[in-house]
Design goal:
mainly alpha; about 110 residues; 4 helices
């Protein structure tokens, strides 16, 4: 019977530590009802009940930071669109530079 109490005590301690760390690490925008530090106090003062309350009522699981999925550049339509405009801009700059060079050549030959 002593072993059961020891295992139950260790489970309660582990649950309390896990819930307290989870409450501390959770973004404050994802906490409901009470501020984060109050949730940590509730978890520490009421070990099992506080942890259960935190996981059921305190932590907002539905909302959070959206998952940003990284795509390869050739799969990103914005990147491909920008790439086309950058090529157009580079070609325009080349043409303008050529026109300026032609104008410089014409003005230098006249003098």
């Amino acid at each position: 019977m002593v072993r059961v109490y020891i295992v139950a005590g260790l489970a309660i301690i582990a649950l309390t530590i896990y819930a307290a760390i989870d409450a501390l690490m959770t973004d404050k925008r994802r906490t409901r009802g009470l501020p984060k530090f109050v949730w940590v106090l509730v978890i520490l003062v009421l070990p099992v009940i506080g942890a259960v309350l935190w996981f059921t009522l305190g932590k907002d699981r539905g909302k959070g930071k959206p998952v940003v999925r990284q795509t390869a550049p050739d799969d990103d339509p914005d990147f491909l669109r920008r790439l086309g405009t950058e090529k157009d801009q580079e070609e325009r700059i080349r043409r303008l530079e050529q026109e300026l060079a032609d104008l410089d050549d014409d003005s230098s030959t006249k003098e």
